[in-house]
Amino acid sequence: MEEQLAARLHVRHAHVCASGTAAVFTALAACGVGAGDEVIVPPFTFVADIECVLWLGAVPVFAEVDTTLCLDPASVAAAITPRTKAVLVVHMCGSMGRIDALEELCRRRGVLLIEDAAQAMGATYRGQPLGTFGRAGVFSFDFVKTMTCGEGGAIATNDAALHEVVQAFTDHGHDHRGADRGADRHPFLGLNFRLSELHAAVGLAQLPKLDRMLEVQRRHKRYLRDGLQDLRRVSFRKVPDAAGDSATFLSFFLPTEAEAREAAGRLASAGVDGCFYWYDNNWHYHRKWQHFQTLASPAALAVQKAGWLPHLSSIHVPRSDALLGRTISMLIKLGWTKTDLEQRRERMRSVLQ
Ligand SMILES: Cc1ncc(COP(=O)(O)O)c(C=O)c1O
Questions:
Q1: Which of 114, 120, 155, 319 could bridge to 91 as Cys pair (CB 3.0-4.6 Å)?
Q2: Which of 63, 59, 60, 97 has the alpha carbon at shortest distance from 77?
Q3: Per-residue pLDDT tens over the stretch 264-281
Q4: Cα separation of 233 and 253, whole Å?
Q5: Is 213 helix (H, G, I), strand (E, B) or coil?
Q6: Rounded to whole angstroms, how far apart are CA atoms 156 and 167?
Q7: CA distance 86 to 41
Q8: Nearest CA among 141, 159, 180, 195 for reference residue 20
Q9: Is the separation of the CB atoms in 37 and 59 below 8 Å?
Q10: Pick from 293, 238, 4, 201: which is nearest to 125 by CA?
Q11: Could you give the C-alpha distances from 290 to 228, 296, 297, in angstroms and in order?
């Protein structure tokens, strides 16, 4: 699976592991993100990214997202301090952030770029797979992703030394030098984040289907997007390279928060399922992350003990709030028939007009 994944992503190394969360944790740790380091993160992501930063003893610093629904390079630039170790760009909902600008910024300011492409397997920017621009890229193959192993994840990198650290870290730091596992040495600490052979077998069977799944998603998304194009109240998420969109979601904006919240409710009542209003979502948007705001944890966190974490209770991202308040993202499904699509388009038009 690792060989085929590396070939699919055009990278030198891909390492599979137990989950996307394990992949984020491993990528950060292997890149040297640890106690007291600042990591710039978006307020629109999945809780896993913030969990990993916090468990590593590092400090999440929130920058704004823009109309790509990913980190705004200007806001990231303003958030960089001498303590910034990495920028964690999250390619949300299957499409890309302004990855060229973020890559250039990180290079110029000497900070690591790490990509969370957990939701963007198969997406590309100008032909290059997302997850291969930064020092490391992370993928998830959990049960809601385009390509799934049931549960699973991967870390992609072109850096052989980093790959060595990644593969050892996910197996207790074993150096894997010989055939005798008991004689392995442990150059450093690790954890068990291994993917099982059984899960990998499923992943291996999924990979050859990826292009077909992407093709169907893109066709379905195009049909629905084209069908909403003329609606005065609707505008669409900025996708820097539409040809590379994995098309897992159709994300659009309404003029106001009130209109978006109301439309999300009416879409659900009209039987248009899978329309997410992230602004009120517990998993993906900072407003409902009370457990981070209060640092609720079964065990004391290093950041807490050391007093490194000043204000998670008041994350200040007014531009992201204004944007996400107006955003609805609709899941694109593979199994829709022509009739399903026609019906969905008509119902959406009648709610959103
Ligand atoms: C952006 C993002 N990062 C990381 C993860 C974690 O992946 P997993 O569920 O495989 O642990 C997810 C899962 O939804 C995600 O959406």
A1: 120
A2: 63
A3: 999 999 999 999 999 999
A4: 8
A5: helix
A6: 11
A7: 9
A8: 141
A9: yes
A10: 238
A11: 36, 8, 11
- Give me the torsion for CA of 33, 35, 36, 37, rounded to 10°: 0
145 catalytic residue (yes or no)? yes
Q: What is the pLDDT of residue 310?
A: 67
* pLDDT, tens only, 54-64: 999 999 999 99
**Strand, helix or coil for residue 302:** helix
Residue to substitute in 19, 45, 46 for testing ligand 1 pocket (most ligand atoms within 8 angstroms of CB): 46
Q: Which atom of ligand 1 is nearest to the CA of 21?
A: 11
Name the 3-class secondary structure at 107.
helix
pLDDT given at position 184: 93
Centre of ligand 1 from the C-alpha of residue 342, in Å: 31
For residue 237, which amino acid is it?
A: R
CA atoms of 90 and 217, how far apart (whole Å): 20
- For the chain, the average pLDDT equals 96
Q: What is the DSSP letter of 88?
A: E
| Buried-state track 337-353, b at ≥16 Cβ within 10 A, e below 16 | eeeebeebbeebeebbe
Quick one: tokens of 98?
Answer: 């302004």
Ligand 1 — pocket residues by CB below 6 A? 19-21, 24, 45-46, 48-49, 90, 116, 118-119, 140, 142, 153
What mean pLDDT comes out for the span 76-103?
A: 98
19's tokens: 């989950």
Per-residue pLDDT of 138-189, as tens digits, reads: 999 999 999 999 999 999 999 999 999 999 999 999 999 888 999 999 999 9
Q: Residue 149 in contact with residue 203, Cβ under 8 Å?
A: yes
pLDDT at 309 over 80: no
Between CA 323 and CA 50 the distance in angstroms is 21
DSSP label of 70: S
Residues sharing a CB contact under 8 Å with residue 75, sequence separation 6 or more, in sequence order: 63, 64, 66, 319
Catalytic residue among 85, 145, 221, 333: 145
